[in-house]
Every structure is written in structure tokens, then in C-alpha cells.
Design a protein that fits this description.
The termini are far apart. The strands form two sheets. The chain has an eight-stranded parallel beta barrel with strand order 3-4-5-6-7-8-9-10, surrounded by six helices. A two-stranded antiparallel ribbon has the order 1-2. The mean pLDDT is 93. By secondary structure, the chain is of the alpha/beta class.
Length: 454
Amino acid sequence: MQDRTVVPPGSDCRTQLAFAREGIVSSEMQRVADREELAAELIREEIACGRMILPANVHHRALDPMAIGRLARVKINANIGSSPTSSSLEEEVEKLRLAERWGADTVMDLSTGKGIDATREAILEVASVPIGTVPIYQALERVKRIEDLTADILLEVIDHQARQGVDYMTIHAGVRLEHLPLTQHRVTGIVSRGGGILARWMVHHKRENPLYERFDDVLEICREHDVSISLGDGLRPGSIADASDAAQFAELDTLGELTERAWKRDVQVMIEGPGHIPIDQLEANVRRQQDVCHGAPFYTLGPLVTDVAPGYDHITSAIGAAIVGWHGTSMLCYVTPKEHLGLPAAEDVKQGLIAYRIAAHAADLARGDRRAARWDRELSEARFAFDWRRQFELALDPEAARAMHDETLADDYFKSAEFCSMCGPKYCPMHNFRDIDWEQVRAVVAARKQASVR
């Protein structure tokens, strides 16, 4: 990427939020403005007030800067990562490349097991998109039991990952000891890995969440390296039955408090959102987050709008993602067909990203994005002109579109044919529409109107 912006004289802070508040349009902000087709000063203003973040760790040299916020196009995050039972460093790097190819705007490395550091370093070395992590996963690898975790270990891991170049981190600081009784009668309890770890730790020690108690120390680390904080939803509902309950909203209130504390230290913040929410509650959830968290960008997992489709949760969640994107969510965390079932493989990553690119694009259209509308129009014009090659070029997945067409009409002749195998030449409505004599139509309509007057 281009050279990073130099810290202004007299300042000890090099976060994008600090630059924006100083009135400085950083080189990263200019790059975002070019990518979003917006004025650089507008990008600066949105970052300065916290409605937009620009995740850009000062150590991430391969980064091509991007931004997350309501004035930007809707972004997509892809989760990758090895587990203790499957996957390898090489496979995860390949998943990163695949995620970038299919349109991921950020990638979260959720690796667990023994090879976390090597995997992350390999990913950061080549990733042009921002990389996120959940530091508590690596902290857990340093101890034998969850109960052995300490605040110092958590902070050491956060500092270590910040120095490696991680651009944003999920910090589950909003899960409070006093919130836990609110989850007792849930159908699916606590489904967040980070939230579950901290809940078990708090119950065992009969103490407050160490990430909440030491949040100021977390902020100091993030401020030094410009790590954006993704305030985790450790008490998110994991089923439709638990949606919009007291536990979810109690945590959200705490996230609003933590947002203001982060802004006071010039640390960028976005807020993670619920996983399972029925369609009729989606808009209210977005509006409540925006109000409670003072306009900070919303980052949602899905949401999944039903629980009954294991194996197809990239679809159940893309439905919710399109709707919350329309109502103002800034980034959508993709869900793959393997959600709830296992670690996603390369094809699952692709299927999840395609589903979410459709959802994000639909949301951009609903929000009035001119680039999204232009893309749709160009494809529609190519379709009406029977320009098959141009249709394939403009498709989200050109290879799939071309392959489906060629299954039944493979010969090159059919690349210029004015029909497809669904209707054929006789029944094609667009072909028949193009043959209409419009002068004759107008004459007939005028004659009928004149006859009705008589």
C-alpha cells in the first residue's frame, strides 16, 4: 500500500480517529475516498464523529485501506481459521486468497489450536484486506483450563496480536457478571465462544469480566497500534426463541458505555450484532443499536431469520443480512452452509461469500447507492440486448453463470442467440417485445380512445 500518514508534531497518537479529529485527511482516508467515490473530507468527518471506522494497524504493510460505515457501501467479513481437529496453515492462506477473490472486504482469523501464531503471520503477510481476530482464543491456548486465564494473559495476547499487525479485534468486554442470570432460561444459552469462556471464568472466580475491568488497558494497546475494536456480542441470541431478550439488550447498553470510553482515547469502534433474529424484529434491532451506541458502525452475524435450515444457513442469514443492511448495518459477517455443522472448507467459503455479496448489493440498492444501481442497469441492458458475454462479465460469479448457460446451449453460436434454453426463440418475451411495431401500437391505442369518446 501507499506510505502511511506521518504523526503530526506534538501528538503521540497515530490512530485514524485521531488524525480525523485533528482535521488531517490521511493517505488511508484518501484511498478510501477513491474506492468509495466519495469526497475525502466527508470520509474524514465520518471517521471523526465515529460513524465510520478505517481499520488499519500501523504494522499491516500489505493492507489496501477500506472503511466501514453507513455512508460507505455495505461491507462483508469472511471468517476463516484452523481448529484443533482440522485444517492447516496452507489451507487457511488459501481460504484467505479465496475470500479476497470472491469479494470479502475483511477477514477474521478465528484459528484455535496450536498453530495460531504461524497461521496469522502467514495471513497478515499477504492480506490486502483488514484482518480481525478474537484474542481470547489465543489466550486460552496459554493455559490448561479456562479458569486459569488472567487479565494479564489477555492483555499480553492483545498486545502481541497488535504488534503482529491485526487491524481489528473482537473484545467481549460487554459481558458483565450481573448479566449472566438473564441467560438462565434461554433455549440455547450462551452461543458465543468468547462469551461462554468469560461466563465460565466469572462464575468460577465470582468476579467481574477482566476485559471490562481492564478496558482502559485494552484501549492503550489499541491506541498505540491503531487497532480498531469490534465490541463483541457475547450474549447474542443463538436461536429465534431467544431473540431480543433482556440479556442481549443489557449487554448492548454496556457496549454503548464502552463506545464512549474508546472514543475518548481516540480508538475506533464498531459494534457486533445478534445472530438469530426473526424478520419482524430486524429493523428495531438496528435502530436500537444505533441509538444506544451513538451511531457507531453496526457489524452483524447474519442475522439468521429461522433456525430450521442446517446446511442452508448461508441463505437463512443472507435474508436477514440484506434487511439489516438496508436499515443501516455497515458490515455483514458471512455465514457458510457449514454454520452450526462444522469447519467450512474452500467451497463453503465461496458459497457464503456469494450469498453475502448478493445481500450486501441488495442493501446498497435499497440505500440508493448509485454504483449498485449502475451495475444492475448495465447487466439488464446486456440481458435485453442478448449480449451473453457481457452478462457473464457483469455477473457476481461469471464462471457459474457461463457454465449454467452452456449446459444446454454450449456452442459458440448460442453466445449471440436471441434466446436461452428456458423459452427458446418462439416464446422468448424479450425477443417478442423487440419485434413490436410501436408506431402501429400507438395508432391502435389512439383509435380505441377515439372510438370510446364517440
